[in-house]
Amino acid sequence: MSKLPPNTFPLAGHNVNRMGYGAMQLAGPGVFGPPKDRNTAIAVLKEAVASGVNHIDTSDFYGPHITNQIIREALHPYPADLLLVTKLGATRGQDASWQPAQEPDQLRRGVEDNLHNLGVDVLDVVNLRIMGDIHHPSEGSIARQMNAMAEMQRQGLIRHIGLSNVTSAQVAEAQGIAKIVCVQNQYNLVERQDEKLVDELAAQGIAYVPFFPLGGFSPIQSDALSKLAAGLEATPMQVALAWLLHRSPNILLIPGTSSLTHLRENLRAAELQLPESALTALAALGKTSRAA
């Protein structure tokens, strides 16, 4: 099985391949309950790692608990070069709702659940997920949550701290409390509100990890992307992922899937070269979105 190209970026003391894997879709529909096919979920994880993925994004509120349990079953004992990045800040209701869990005691329970279900004594990287406007950040102090994270880091439960769904001001506030190694926000071809933040973090050598690489697309934008991808003999997802890799060297990707076929397609995006004509057309998609 071929390995991914040597395209890496430093994260939490690891040189991780910029094409990683997001484990959210290993749970059932709506990221709730067990998957339809647990054996396939395990096979996807095993193949991702065998293909060179050494950065896996997860959370114990995926399922809840189920995704981390599948990761443990598939990959434990974990390879020495594998970086597991998890996140805190929410819980799931019995109706599959997403509920904020931002109090210090809730964050600690989240850490304890992640430790237990992943089968580790310390978490490599934990992203503090600020609920904000669900998929978009909103301003406001995060000092209380960050102080709780820093305390758990001092206690040896967390090695490194990241942030998710945050603003530039919140990143700066957090950095006054503890070192931040990554930021995970929504960002893609048409959702480019974080243009400035991506560059700010790149200048500091901090990883930026976008989620929803095809989120927020209008039907017209999706059609334009599909036509462009067809001309490149690629899938729309591959083109969207390749554009993100081209956008900035500090961008790390975590596309998720529960399908072996889609996993292989996503990994091949790391090899896709976008000609200047394609980059120009893709840039226009973003301009269209901002004008809309």
Identify low-pLDDT runs. Answer: none
Which series of helices and strands comes N to C? EEEHEHEEEHEHEHEHEHHHH
CATH topology: TIM Barrel
The total of beta strands comes to: 11
What overall geometry do the principal axes of the alpha carbons give? globular
Give the CATH architecture: Alpha-Beta Barrel
- Distance N terminus to C terminus? 44 Å
Strand content: 15-25%
Mean pLDDT metric: 94
CATH class: Alpha Beta
Q: Tell me the Rg in angstroms.
A: 18 Å
Oligomeric state of this protein: single chain
Number of domains: 1
Helix fraction, binned, reads 40-55%
The structure class reads alpha/beta
Q: In order across it, which strands form the biggest sheet?
A: 3-4-5-8-9-10-11
Main sheet properties: 7 strands, parallel
Superfamily at the CATH H level?
Answer: NADP-dependent oxidoreductase domain
Task: Please tally the helical runs, counting DSSP H or I stretches of 4 or more residues.
Answer: 10
Key terms for this structure?
292 residues, TIM Barrel, 17% strand, globular
Topology readout:
Layout: E1 8-11, E2 14-17, E3 21-22, H1 38-50, E4 55-57, H2 66-75, E5 83-88, E6 90-92, E7 98-100, H3 104-118, E8 123-129, H4 143-154, E9 158-164, H5 168-175, E10 180-186, H6 195-204, E11 207-211, H7 219-231, H8 236-247, H9 260-268, H10 276-291
Parallel strand pairs: 3-4, 4-5, 5-8, 8-9, 9-10, 10-11
Antiparallel strand pairs: 1-2, 6-7
Helix pairs in contact: 1-2, 1-9, 3-4, 7-8, 7-10
Structure overview:
The chain is an alpha/beta fold and 292 residues long. It has a single domain, classed as NADP-dependent oxidoreductase domain (TIM Barrel). 40% of the residues lie in helices and 17% in strands. The protein has 10 helices and 11 strands. The protein has helices spanning 38-50, 66-75, 104-118, 143-154, 168-175, 195-204, 219-231, 236-247, 260-268, 276-291, and strands at residues 8-11, 14-17, 21-22, 55-57, 83-88, 90-92, 98-100, 123-129, 158-164, 180-186, 207-211. It has a 7-stranded parallel β-sheet with strand order 3-4-5-8-9-10-11, with helices on one face. Strands 1-2 form a two-stranded antiparallel ribbon. Strands 6-7 form a two-stranded antiparallel sheet. Strand 1 and strand 2 (14-17) form a beta hairpin. Helix 7 packs antiparallel against helix 10 (276-291). The longest helix has 16 residues, at 276-291. The radius of gyration is 18 Å and the shape is globular. The relative contact order is 0.14. The mean pLDDT is 94.
